Amino acid sequence: MIPLQHFLFISAALFSLGLFAIITRKNAIQILMGIELMINASILNIVAFGKYDKIDNTGQVFGLFIIVLAAAAVAVALVIIMNLYKRVKTIDPNQTNLLKG
Amino acid sequence: MNIETIIFYFLAFIALASGAFVVLSQHLVRSVFMFFVTLFAVAGLYVFALADFVALTQVVIYVGGVLVLLLFAFLLSSKQSLEGMEKIPSGLLSAHRLPAAIISLAFLFLLCFVFFQIDFENLSWITSAKAKENVILVTDNTIRNIGINLMSKYLLPLEMVSILLLMVLVGAAHIARREPNL
Q1: Which chain B residues have a beta carbon less than 8 Å from that of A6?
Q2: Hey, which of A9, A44, B109, B178 has its CA 20 to 30 A from B11?
Q3: What is the ipTM of this complex?
Q4: Domain with residues A4-88, CATH architecture
Q5: How far apart are CA B4 and CA B17, in angstroms?
Q6: Measured on CA atoms in the order A49, A51, A53, A58, is the torsion positive or negative?
Q7: Model-level pTM?
Q8: Which tens digit of pLDDT belongs to each residue from B90-108?
Q9: How many CA atoms does the CB half-sphere of B81 hold within 13 Å?
Q10: Distance CA B63, CA B34 (A)
Q11: B82 lies in the same domain as B159
């Protein structure tokens, strides 16, 4: 069997990659992809621990819930990005300063 | 070193390498398509964590739904974003990327430090699960158990997720509609 720690190291590396994407990217779609990468890393973590819960399946069931919630969040975020592009003609979060006081 | 560990580390390498490409590539289309590879490799890692149903759901929902949505959003705003991409200086450690690299490497170091400190095989709940034979084996069929649990023990979270999905459907359609006097 693969030891539990190796899953955790891989998910930590994926999470750091997502964090790097969120900080450096200048495009809202790519920031969203960074968030998806972080969500995938956390699902890997929760599923790896879910191996020790055969009767209740808590890890796997909540992994499914996280996937569904991430899909819903992506749908809403893409609609918001499209609306933003229609209004200000850019999807760079640094240039959208309409709400700045 | 049997075939299982070789495939596992191969999948892990593919996931990390394609994830790094997604993060570092200057070309938006290439990074979106490389994200396919990352999601498939992470689904393979779920299979190695003995969660085959979660892996299938990942393939169906992420690869089938989320990435198609991302591609659509990219196609609807492509020209502007492609022009904006050209101005970003490349290189991993250029001036505006260095702080981000430091922050994410520090976070990775922190997480790995914590994982090295903890002895996971001797945690109390894991040892009690092992003592009660509450561990998923490779030969087990977990999908039937997941279905029964979803309809009995986790019925309230399931209903809350379904109501949230309905709200997302209505809300997304409401935000996306064309406004008459914009």
Answers
A1: 8, 12
A2: B109
A3: 0.90
A4: Orthogonal Bundle (1.10)
A5: 20
A6: positive
A7: 0.88
A8: 555 566 788 889 999 999 9
A9: 25
A10: 11
A11: no
